[in-house]
Hints:
Blueprint: H1 21-24, H2 29-33, H3 36-60, H4 62-70, H5 76-83, H6 87-116, H7 127-142, H8 155-160, H9 164-187, H10 199-211, H11 222-248, H12 254-276
Helix pairs in contact: 3-6, 6-7, 6-12, 7-9, 9-10, 10-11, 11-12
Amino acid sequence: MRETSARPIRQSGWAFQFLPVFFSRPIHCPRFLMPWFPFVGMLCLAALPWSGSFVMAGNADHGHDAAVQEQGHQHAAVRGELWEGSRQGIAYSEFNHHMAGVFLLLIGLSEVRQALGWPALVWTRFLLPGALTVGGIFLLIWSDHDSWPIGSMTFAQTFFGSDEEVLQHKTYGVLAFVVGVVEFLRRIGWLAHAVWMVPLPLFAIVGGLMLFSHSHGDHPAASTIVLHHVIMGMMAITAGSSKLVSGWRTRSVLTERSYWELLWASLVVFIGLQLLIYSE
């Protein structure tokens, strides 16, 4: 039989690329990871001022804690009440909120680039899953000073106890980690079905609703904290809803779809900025 095609016969194999290039060829891994180093450095530099303020507040409050211990207040509930509103407790809470702001700001800026369709810095699409995953781990470990694994509370007391504030923080951590993993797998092409676009906006909506009932206990600045949470909750619900609508739009209405994407990204940036200036 005469050959009718001048092209060479393709070798047998998968009909699609099963792994991204940087996974299938290890030599490309350093080249893929190099652009991440500046952002990691920026994140560390951004964390230094708040970590310094936290340490200073902890040293300033050390004498107060020692005096309390001498008076015999050893009960966990009493310690919890003394922590809320203390200089060390406020510094710890503000540091955590500021770190969350850094993560959300990175997410928002990367989503703005995607919404505007800028061809440069395409790798920043991985900032969202990366920030969510790292932020989730951060919350699971350091969300509360007295919770598992860094505090006196056990795993069961932390995740199945009666402290609603701790439980909400850990719930945020679990959801952020899971959604981050889902988004990473979706963006490398392993989860291609449209249903996998739902967890991200659903997480924003559920997280926003949870903020309306989130409380820091008997805190001197309780009204200010509630106001912060209400504003962030409203923006989170609006952002998640716009992202959900954007996912439903088809490619034939790309202009309208980009408006919803831009609204989503802008609100995430605003929430990040509000967390950066959060104070008690």
